[in-house]
Recover the amino acids of this structure.
């Protein structure tokens, strides 16, 4: 197996990214990988690409997209004006899990946040039902430090 290549996503990667999202236990309920993709995916991709604080990445093995994550930087006043690195939508294709690919994606995000210079930590949220994900993030050094809430609109 060749080495994982972590690179910025392109619009051509959208079907593979959406398939990763829809493969997930919760994504099955809210994402649709059938082609043609819903126009909402292309609009969201264009919005992400237009912002320098957004990094939608894919992990590729042998020319095939097998992982994805999004890293967003947001400024804050707390912690003396520190930026936050927010990690979202971390997914590894189910037949490729357990091989360290997710760890490589998270390491990329951590290295990128360190290189930002004024970002002292990464943070993320994960659904309470994703117990396998919880174990993964704890293995990667994330701490359970907050309780998250959502307000349905």
């Amino acid at each position: 197996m060749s080495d994982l290549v972590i690179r910025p996503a392109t619009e051509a990667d959208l079907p593979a990214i959406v398939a990763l999202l829809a493969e997930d236990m919760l994504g099955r309920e809210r994402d649709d990988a059938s082609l043609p993709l819903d126009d909402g995916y292309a609009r969201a991709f264009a919005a992400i690409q237009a912002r320098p604080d957004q990094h939608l990445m894919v992990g590729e093995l042998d020319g095939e997209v097998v992982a994805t994550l999004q890293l967003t930087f947001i400024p804050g006043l707390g912690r003396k004006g520190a930026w936050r690195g927010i990690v979202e939508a971390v997914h590894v294709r189910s037949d490729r899990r357990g091989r360290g690919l997710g760890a490589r994606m998270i390491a990329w995000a951590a290295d990128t946040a360190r290189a930002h210079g004024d970002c002292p930590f990464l943070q993320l949220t994960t659904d309470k039902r994703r117990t396998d994900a919880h174990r993964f993030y704890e293995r990667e050094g994330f701490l359970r430090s907050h309780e998250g809430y959502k307000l349905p609109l």
About this structure: The chain has a mean pLDDT of 93.
